[in-house]
Structures are given as structure tokens and as C-alpha cells.
Amino acid sequence: MSEMKPREKAFDEAFCSSCGETIKKEAEICPKCGVRQRRVGGSSMESQNWLTCLLLCVFLGYFGAHRFYAGKIGTGVLMLLTGGGCGIWWLIDLIMILTEKFADSAGNVISRNG
Ligand SMILES: [Zn+2]
């Protein structure tokens, strides 16, 4: 019975987009089939939600909440300390998110389509 159980992925693992093998989330290339993993438009579990990011920026942007959300901790803290760069930085980020140019710490643009 136990052998029938499908393999469950750990919190730091993902499934290969080609062969379905369990690989590390950080892995760029599957060690089994050698196919490069696509990151853009991945599962909703891993990609940041555009609307959440936008709302965080609108309401908590002065505290850099949207940057913490995107995994940009360093600049998030900086933004927190400067009050969103006196509002200017906050405004720029807001426009970046609205025009879908705001990227997370991994460099993936947070878009409406996830
Ligand atoms: Zn593979």
C-alpha cells in the first residue's frame, strides 16, 4: 500500500516541468532530464499575487510592505526607514506595479496574470 502513495514534494521542492521529477525549487535545470525550468507563470503557490502586491503598496507602501511581500527585504527595510523615500519611491513603485514592471527578488515580474 505504501508504495502506491504518490511522492509528496517537500516545502523546498518543486516538480520538473518536463518529466515531473521532484527537484529543488532553486534548481534551474532538472538533474534527471536536463530541462531548464520555467519560472514565469508558474504555479500560483509560488508566484506573487499582483493584486495583493498592489493593495499592499497602496495602503502600506510607506512601510515598504509590497517590497517585503516581493522578497526584497533589504530595500523594504530601507523604504521603511525613509518613509517610502518621502513618498517619491512609493509613487514610483506604485506606478511600476500598475504597469506590471515590478519584479520580485528572483527577478520575476509580478503581473496581473500571475
Ligand atoms: Zn526533468
Keywords:
114 residues, mainly alpha, two-stranded antiparallel sheet, 4 helices, 2 strands, 36% helix, 5% strand, binds zinc ion
Describe the structure.
The longest helix is centred in the C-terminal third of the chain and has 14 residues, at 73-86. The protein has four helices and two strands; from the N terminus they run ββαααα. Strands 1-2 form a two-stranded antiparallel ribbon. α1 (50-60) packs antiparallel against α4 (88-98) and α3 (73-86) crosses α4 (88-98). The protein is mainly alpha-helical and 114 residues long. The structure holds zinc ion. Zinc ion binds at residues 16, 18-19, 21, 30, 32-33, 35.
Chain-wise SSE layout:
Layout: E1 13-15, E2 22-24, H1 50-60, H2 65-69, H3 73-86, H4 88-98
Antiparallel strand pairs: 1-2
- The CA-CA distance between the termini, in Å, is 38 Å
Percent of residues in beta strands?
A: 5-15%
Largest sheet: 2 strands, antiparallel
How many helices? Answer: 4
Please give the number of β-strands: 2
Named once each, the bound ligands are:
zinc ion
Order of the strands making up the biggest sheet: 1-2
Uncertain runs: 41-45
Specify the helix fraction band: 25-40%
Query: What's the overall geometry?
Result: elongated
The topology string of helices and strands comes to EEHHHH
- Indicate the structural class: mainly alpha
Quick description:
The chain is mainly alpha-helical and 114 residues long. The chain is built from four helices and two strands; from the N terminus they run ββαααα.
